[in-house]
Amino acid sequence: MGIAEERVVAVIMVGGPTKGTRFRPLSFNIPKPLFPLAGQPMVHHPISACQKIPNLARIYLIGFYEEREFALYVSSISNDLKLPVRYLKEDKPHGSAGGLYNFKDVIMEEDPSHIFLLNCDVCCSFPLPQMLDAHKKHGGMGTILVVKVSPESASEFGELVADPVTNELLHYTEKPETFVSDLINSGVYIFTPDIFTAIEGVSSQRKDRANLRRVSSFEAMQQDTRSLPANYVRLDQDILSPLAGKKQLYIYETMDFWEQIKTPGMSIKCSALYLSQFRHTSPHLLANGDGIKKACIIGDVYIHPSAKVHPSAKIGPGVSISANARIGAGARLINCIVLDDVEIKENAVVLHAIVGWKSSIGRWARVQGRGDYNAKFGVTILGESVAVEDEVVVISSIVLPHKTLNVGVQDEILL
Ligand SMILES: Nc1nc2c(ncn2[C@@H]2O[C@H](COP(=O)(O)OP(=O)(O)O[C@H]3O[C@H](CO)[C@@H](O)[C@H](O)[C@@H]3O)[C@@H](O)[C@H]2O)c(=O)[nH]1
């Protein structure tokens, strides 16, 4: 296919409210894909990476959140990027491949030659044009972006084996119990429209099996994946595993940063990763201690233009401060996310923490975590409208919305 005929669309899978439970208490207020990392909604980072794809016609977000939750964001980003971005709502979860298939007709209206498919909850540099080039060299139905992780953490992901010369995917196991490989599926793919035929194949096999089961009482007693609804199709187990070793799927390895964002703790780490990426891609978004914001800035920091920061506050590295926040004299902020309308009073310290919308932190108070972003009590999270009174110390705790803390706490969940 020549360059002129090439047409690309991108699809970002955003999931829905039942999928974001590990993101509580922050997901009470906002759908996880819209939670700010480096001052921009989580989904904004893959969307802005899509801008670099040649011949990109359109971006779709597919999820089962209410349409109104995404309406404002989708219309403002379409305007900013001068690129149509559309939210497509599933009536119920259909799985990571079933969700895509559900909107086959809408997507195929664009007559795409290639379809990018991205999980919204991964943080990386999204080397999409490079993946497209690699995919064209490989041929086949799809190319998966892969990354090496530590052998201890590999079992949380899809582990895979590929041919070192041809890059063909030879073996794929989703979250295996015994170690297969430290090379894992990063949740970013490019496919040809043949992906729809593959998903259709899984659905019709399921329908056939369901019909068979009706006549076999033994099979009816078995509660396994074969009894999933026919239109519920998982990309990893149902498509990637069976197609490995069939010259259909290939890999492209990224050597850049990559993380998965399932917990609030990881959002602090990923916010800092995106801030350091801004240093190269969008330095204008970083605070530099000049102009109105004369505070002492250390490393990569984002401060919303409407936030007020006292000149004697010391901010950074890895800090993101959202709209209308007020940071008092002598306050010290390191590796944290401060959400809209927060007040941090004089000489308070915030470290490895997320401070929820409209919360306030009193004078000389400390709100901090240990900085172990994957651990249950590795960071401190304050939900919406939490008040930490003057001089109170909060360490590695999760505080649900509308609480007032007048005594210190450590390693606790405050309901
Ligand atoms: N629209 C929609 N989205 C869905 C659905 N189910 C999952 N998703 C979205 O699809 C993506 C994958 O979610 P899961 O299927 O829950 O898998 P996972 O545990 O995140 O693991 C996947 O991603 C890892 C990389 O982050 C991979 O390593 C792993 O192999 C797997 O593909 C997420 O962005 C999630 O929001 C669905 O029914 N509908």
UniProtKB/TrEMBL annotation:
Residues 297-409 form the Mannose-1-phosphate guanyltransferase C-terminal domain. This is Mannose-1-phosphate guanyltransferase. It holds the Pfam family NTP_transferase. Belongs to the transferase hexapeptide repeat family. GO terms for cellular component: cytoplasm. It comes from Medicago truncatula. Its EC number is 2.7.7.13. The keyword Transferase applies. The lineage of its organism: Eukaryota, Viridiplantae, Streptophyta, Embryophyta, Tracheophyta. CDD domains: M1P_guanylylT_A_like_N. Residues 10-210 form the Nucleotidyl transferase domain. Keywords: Nucleotidyltransferase, Transferase. Gene3D superfamilies: Hexapeptide repeat proteins, Spore Coat Polysaccharide Biosynthesis Protein SpsA, Chain A. One of its GO terms (molecular function) is mannose-1-phosphate guanylyltransferase (GTP) activity.
